[in-house]
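Hi, here's the filled form for the chain we discussed.

Project: internal
Contact: R.S.
Residues: 224
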Amino acid sequence: MSSKLILIIEDEEDILELLEYTLQKEGYETIGFLKVDKNIQKILDEESVDLILMDRNLPQIEGTTFINQIRSEGYTNPVIYVSAKDKDEDIIQGFDCHGDDYITKPFNVKELCARVKAVIKRSSREVDVLKVKDIVYKSSNKKFYIEDIEMQLSHLEHNLLLEFIKNKDILLSRDYLLSTVWQDSLEKKEKTVNVAIKRLKTKIDPDGEKNYIRSIRGEGYIFC
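And the returned structure, exactly as it came back:
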C-alpha cells in the first residue's frame, strides 16, 4: 500500500518542520507550505491528498476561509485544524468549517499522530459518490463516469458539471456560475459561460439525446 500523503499549511517554519519530520517518521509523505498560494490548488488537482493539516492564523487568509473556498469548489479532502486559537468558540467554528478534528497549540506530537491516523482511517472507509441519472461522480479521485466509462473533462468542465450536480433542478444564472466556477478568472463574460456549457454538453451527451442541461432564455441553466 502506498504512503498516505498529508498536505500541511503552517506559517511558522519551525512548526512546519516539526510536523513534517514527525509525520515522515510515521511513514507518511508530506508536502508543506508556509502560506496559501496557487501551487496548493495544483497539488490538490494533481496529487491524491489524504489529509490537510491547516493552520488558521495565516498571513494572507484565515485557514477556515480557505477550507470553505476549496469545499465550494468540490474538494472533499479531510481536514484537521492545528491552531493557537483555542477558545471553545474557535474550536466549534473549526468543526463548523469542515474540520474533521481540531488540535490546539502547543500540541503533543504523539497525540497529533494518533489523531491523524484516526481521521485518515475513518475517511478512507467513506466513499463519497454523487449519482444523478447515469452520471456518477467519485470524490475519491475527482472523476465523472457514465456507464462506468470515465469522462475526459478539463478542470473547468469538471467544476462546472460538479456545480450543476450539486444544484440539481435549481436554476443557475450565468452570473452565479461566473462567480462560483470562474471566480477570479479574467474571462468573466456571459459568452464564456455559453461556450463552456456547449462544450460540456458535447462531452456528456454527444448525441444530444439526454438533455441533461436545459437553457432557460434570459435566465440561465438547469441541470435535470
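Let me know if anything looks off before we file it.
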